[in-house]
Amino acid sequence: MTEIERGKSAGRSDSWMRLEEAARATFWGYLGCEVVQADSRQSLIRLKLRPEHLNLLGIVHGGVLASLMDNAMGLVVMIGSPDDKTVTANMNIQYLKSANSGTLSCEARLVHRSRRSFTLQSSIYGEDGDLLAWGSGSFRLVI
């Protein structure tokens, strides 16, 4: 169980339910992401690994992990600034451990917000609770 799951109930919010529904026809839906909890400060999303998420070594592809982090952090930003368009400006990821099956959980937390930018951190956990990757990202408003 992740820190967000321990600290919050997984009640569904209308704002992110609408976002998730709209995203089903995009890369989000293609990956298979599912929102568990989200608000303007943090989010928790999950991804059940499928064979197409793996690389030739039989482990989850780093790009899938990066996309999972980008989606979790971006969700916080979209909820926190619903009337604005935002883009990922930078992401840094540390790959710590591999996985090849099960469900991944990715949590993201807002670290700092200014008038035009957001800074977040994110962690991905395997089904056994092991930390697989840690990262940070900055997002900016498109003006």
Structure explained in plain terms:
It comes from Paenibacillus spongiae. It holds the Pfam family 4HBT. InterPro entries: Acyl-CoA_thioesterase_PaaI, HotDog_dom_sf, PAAI_dom, Thioestr_dom. This is PaaI family thioesterase. Keywords: Hydrolase. It is globular, with a radius of gyration of 14 Å. The protein has a single domain, classed as Thiol Ester Dehydrase, Chain A (Roll), CATH 3.10.129. It is an alpha+beta fold and 143 residues long. Strand 5 and strand 6 form a beta hairpin. It has a six-stranded antiparallel β-sheet. Helices cover 27% and strands 37% of the residues.
Give me a quick take on this structure.
The protein is of the alpha+beta class and 143 residues long. It has one domain (3-141): Hotdog Thioesterase (Thiol Ester Dehydrase, Chain A), CATH 3.10.129.10. The protein has helices at 3-7, 14-23, 27-31, 62-80; strands at residues 34-38, 42-48, 86-95, 103-113, 117-125, 131-141.
Which features would summarize this protein structure in a list?
143 residues, alpha+beta, Thiol Ester Dehydrase, Chain A, six-stranded antiparallel sheet, 4 helices, globular
